[in-house]
Amino acid sequence: MRNPTTFRRGGRKRKAAARLRQSRDLESIGESLSEQDGHSSNGPEESDNGDGPPNEGPSDLPSEPQSSNTPFFLDQHFPLDQGPFTGHLNTRIFHSYELLGQGLTTGPPYPSFQTSQPQLPMLQLFDQNPIPQDDINTQSTSTPVSLGDVSAGSLPLPGISELISHTSSPLDTPGQKRKITRHLDILPDPALHCELLQHWTLNLCDCLAPVPGHLNPLRSAMMPIALEGSRTDSEKSTGATALFHFICSASAFHLAKKRECEESKGSLENVALEHHNIGITHLAKNIQLSKNGADCVSLLASIIICIYNEAVTLPTTFWRLHFRGAVEWVNHIDPQVWHKSDAASSLYQMFRSMATVVQAQLLFDSHETSYWKFANDFGPQPEPYTLYESFGLPQPVYEGLRAMNALQMRKRSSTESDPSADELDRLEMELYLSAPNRPETPTAKDYADLIYHHGCIFYYAALIHMKRNLKDMPMDAVRPLVEKSLNHLEALPACTSQRSSPMIWPVAIVAFETGDTTMQQRMLRSLAFFEERSELAIWTQITHLVKELWALRKREGANIKWHQTALGTSRLSESCRPVDACASPIARPRYGFFYVDSPELPQRDAVFPRREKSDAPCVFTKMEARALCSGAGCRKVTPIEERLIPTANEWVTRIPVQGFLAILQAIFKYLSFSKVIPQWLKNVSQSTSFVGKIIIHAVRHAQGYHNLGEEFFHLRDPALTPFGQQQCVERRKASFQDQSRFKLIASSPMMRTLHTTSLIFDDAIQTQDILAIPEAQEISDHGCDIGTDPALLKEMTLRNDWPVDLSLVPEGWNDKNLYGPNSPVTSACAARARTVRRILREKGMALSQDTNEDIHIALVAHGSFMHYFSNDWENSTTGCGTGWKNCETRRYVFQNDEWDENAWLVETEESRLARGMMGPAPSAEEQRRLYEKTMVGWVDQGLPDIRYLETASVMPMQEHSRL
């Protein structure tokens, strides 16, 4: 998918947008683009000739590659991917940092709430004055005609430009009441929005909650606020209006996944992005202007839905900072605000529980930004605790989770003493005594059994968490608790037939610690039911991740904890080595609940999850490396389950990073006038900069002797043929005459690639060494694809006068054992490709520290490997085991910023055109089919079927020993 912040649109697409606004038939919509794009920031440079001239940057990429660039073998079920559509995602991803105005002067965080404090006037949460229908202009003659027209360029928001003066309206004259046009009235397609709100009310709203119906605060507390926001004057901006747009966005994204027609799906995605952008703008502005009044309640509701949305796509650092920033904002609001209405109390308690559960997951990655604290406890409340009836979270269990978080923060603190064994025992005793009862309130009688079972699941999960993660007890110690939990999980289906979904955290905690084979089968059946009942594909992902953890324990020990399971990227350079990377010879997978798992492979050795991509470049570049880590480019490896959120939601697939940044910067503006800005937030604010692109020139090696025919495949690490050496000379003249721009030359450590590199990049390596990256080796275990031992390799490079840095090449790098990290199995190949991408990105980021220019990197590798490296399976059987010709070169840029854990690449438009590829790259679904065809085609060529462990090797299985 094309980067929606930068690509350019011509007259034809603007005309298509105009046609779209005339249509209400979702199944026939092709694009959802507003005319606002025709007046974008490109200014006079934009013409009616369509897209501007291509370049190597991400702004002119084809419309599909970025959305479909993920290799489909990582995405068998495609729970989070969207297919292609003939239109393009809307370009208005707001530069919200330009919209922020003056903040509100506040004092320090409020002290703990006391019942003796003077009461504020009763909050007017919702407008008590109904709007006369005679005063409503439903014709919208002087207002925007599409969602696009209420973008950053035209939406009148207070403080962005001044609030629109009533005197500017001919209707606003003395003695004459101005007719208002509501936000509801400027929606371009009322029929569509009826469908969106119906889908939210009847489906999605309950899919996101453990307890459906009237007890669900997503319905009971948020819908009245959203109603008020929709009725607000369109010339005014409120938190309630932001909530209305966030709800429409969530519903549109979720509904789009149900569309079979790609045009309709794409149109709904455009509508979803439009609503999200508008919601972000309203929310960012009103956070700065928030006071201790009713609008704080609607703002908190909007923050909660925004967190739900962006939980799917934002990397861990953003996720952590997002919650920390929201907690800081809440701490600066008078706590009495949250006790003035049932809705306020319900939303406040909901946010507190979300922050507590999320913090329980993030504390294990040792980032201080996870150490947030609320300035006020629940304390004495005039209203009851509602989380048990609405989310199945008993209050004593909730308090136990908070206490466990506090103890974990003490363990991580350098100034506080570790909790003693007695403290841990006392807390565990309290947890045992916190067994829930069936709710007895009249409002909960219809769901009493359901609530009780959810409460018991939380109860046992908290005890399991206590024993395994705080007291470091073995799995055998929690087996009885797991069995008890399973009984309650299996009781849920009989409690209600409505759409619902358990909160993920307790289910995941129980699943992670299920060790008995019989109980594992019971757990898998429960997970399958949750997916069927909720229609949330995240349960399929959790199932895959749980299976991977179980398989890992069989190989490496039953007592491995989920938060100890980290990405074994083997030999990253010291500047980007994960802090907690394990030393095991088997690359341990990294887990995260918002990753899409690879397809089911028998006994596969690694899982290769994919973080969902945000479509907009981050305006905070190098933030983590500069502000949050101890060394440049150093990133801590975060634990499995780092992205869990309190409820299962996965509908948003293309939410831009700017949404988070707008809110975080708004909070910064809000707090800046209080002179109590936390250091972590100062670091974020001071760490913004813009840098050039990292451009990777990928080159396949020239012809080697093994390329002469399959009868030469047995040759061990063969050299280049004379013709291959001539190919290098020709490639150098054609593509790489000026090598002064290359800051890094990298290569596979195999002889043919090192020789190719030395011949093509001879000028560049006069001032730098070739960085040998062992993970860039070819994928198979034919003799020609098995490298040379390091000692002999060093001797050969010296003999040939090749300046090669072999520091990343360890002993055993050429061991192709099926059960090791260099296995020919497709999953291991994908892991190595991801490691190479991350190494190149980290190196490029380090090289860009002192310049804003593009960083050019060359990588010389192998034909089959390049398909995993680029995630492109188009025309992959034109040659033997590859679609790359000898000495062919293609150019790539990183699809996302440095927060993308997988470092996905996209080929530049210029590169595609240079090799005769017209139009966008295949979609994700097409790539999946292409991969299957590739595997079949390679097998037809006489190559092993690397999809499966049993058929991946050219050697008999018995020659491979398990590590």
TrEMBL record:
Keywords: Nucleus. Its main location: nucleus. CDD domains: HP. One of its GO terms (cellular component) is nucleus. Residues 1-79 are annotated as: Disordered. Residues 31-44 have a biased composition (Polar residues). Residues 9-18 have a biased composition (Basic residues). It is found in: Nucleus. This is Uncharacterized protein. It comes from Fusarium anthophilum. The lineage of its organism: Eukaryota, Fungi, Dikarya, Ascomycota, Pezizomycotina.
